[in-house]
Each structure stands twice: as structure tokens, then as C-alpha cells.
Amino acid sequence: MTELPAFNSTALPLQPAAYAATLGPTVVIAPHPDDESLGCGGLLALLARANVPVWCVLMSDGTMSHPNSAKFPAPPAWPCAKPSYGWLWPGWA
């Protein structure tokens, strides 16, 4: 079995903070609420600081993490509407 090199935390970050501004408009897709913050929070903060447009797409409302919970009840269902992608990409009809 091939042994991996030891993790070197002094080599972080891999890119300078200014690098985020070069990425351009960014979409983060997360399976549950707060995953975008936990997984990409630092990048999102750097993009916001650089005034780069950022969108987060949450694929669920997270309610299935606590099914039938009295402490964390599911919020009322959101009404479905005709799909319109203008909310995701400004200027698209």
C-alpha cells in the first residue's frame, strides 16, 4: 500500500486571498442548509469582500435530518411555482 505524505498545515493557504477575486461569478451547490457555510464559508467571505457575485443553491431544506422531531419540527412546505431561473442568473428570462 502506498503511504501518503504527511499533511503540512504550514503550506496553507494554497492561494493568496486575492486569488478569490479572479474566480468570477460563483455558484455553490450544497445538499443541506449550512453545508455551504461549513464547506465554503472562507471562500464565500473572500468573494463577498471582492464584490464577486455569489449564489448558493440549497438542494433541500434539511428537515429530514430530524424526522418527526418535536424539538426541530419541519417548517411549512413552500408552495411550488412555475420554474423561473431569473433568480439564479440575473438577466435570464
Which features does this protein show?
single chain, 93 residues, alpha+beta, two-stranded parallel ribbon, 11% strand, disordered C terminus
The secondary structure category is: alpha+beta
Characterize the main sheet. Answer: 2 strands, parallel
Give the number of helices. Answer: 1
Q: Write the element-wise H/E pattern from the N-terminal end onward.
A: EHE
In helices, the fraction of residues equals: 10-25%
Q: What global shape is seen?
A: flat
**Uncertain parts:** 81-93
Q: Compute the gyration radius: what is it?
A: 18 Å
Description:
This protein has 93 residues and is α+β, with helices and mostly antiparallel strands. It has a domain at 22-54. Helix content is 16%, strand content 11%. The protein has one helix at 35-49; strands spanning 26-30, 54-58. It has a two-stranded parallel sheet. The relative contact order is 0.15.
